[in-house]
């Protein structure tokens, strides 16, 4: 009798380029359309909500690629199952100054949704720590591949990339879904503050990450 058993596919961390645009957009659309913050900002009770979320994700992904920001993903076999976009510490992106992005957003997501999103983004920027830190504005796992550890694997890869950058002191992310808080806390994140969004709170979280060069110097 053969003792052969099929092995579980090994996930691989990859850097993303423009060839992954459509797959990344699809994963992030599924990740954010049921997110409470997006539901409020883009008015899920009004017809066309899914289109507004899809347009917003598309414009954000395209903007971060245009700005040459880091994007990474998890591949299982030949399938991209999770993605994350990382804002450089020096970026401190002010969406209000991105005129072409704002125009595209108004045309696709609508004026009211664009205005609410910009206002939310300004409140988020006001909470960002000093000195500079990386931001994680977009992260998602394909629903078919959730609860398999790929989200944690991806977040740990993001943290390693942040440690390679000598200008950063940590990583900031936000979530309007409180059920994710234990996961982020288990990865060392702590609260920086909250933003009131409709009838709930959006949590701004931070994890200190020492640059590798500084960490090596401290050990010597």
UniProtKB/TrEMBL annotation:
Residues 138-190 form the N-acetyltransferase domain. Pfam families: Acetyltransf_7. InterPro entries: GNAT_dom. This is GNAT family N-acetyltransferase. It comes from Marinobacter salexigens.
């Amino acid at each position: 009798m053969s003792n052969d058993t099929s092995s579980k596919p090994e996930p691989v961390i990859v850097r993303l380029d423009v060839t992954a645009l459509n797959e990344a957009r699809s994963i992030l659309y599924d990740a954010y359309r049921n997110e409470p913050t997006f539901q409020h900002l883009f008015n899920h009770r009004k017809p066309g909500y899914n289109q507004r979320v899809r347009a917003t994700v598309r414009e954000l992904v395209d903007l971060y690629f245009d700005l040459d920001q880091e994007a990474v993903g998890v591949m299982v076999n030949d399938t991209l199952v999770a993605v994350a976009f990382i804002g450089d510490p020096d970026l401190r992106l002010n969406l209000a100054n991105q005129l072409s992005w704002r125009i595209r957003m108004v045309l696709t997501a609508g004026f009211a949704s664009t205005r609410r999103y910009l206002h939310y983004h300004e409140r988020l920027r006001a909470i960002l720590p000093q000195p500079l830190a990386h931001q994680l504005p977009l992260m998602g796992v394909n629903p078919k591949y959730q609860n398999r550890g790929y989200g944690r694997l991806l977040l740990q890869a993001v943290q390693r990339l942040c440690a390679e950058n000598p200008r950063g002191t940590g990583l900031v992310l936000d979530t309007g879904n409180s059920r994710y808080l234990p996961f982020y806390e288990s990865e060392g994140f702590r609260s920086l503050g909250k933003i009131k969004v409709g009838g709930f709170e959006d949590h701004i979280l931070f994890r200190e990450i020492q640059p590798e060069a500084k960490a090596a110097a401290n050990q010597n």
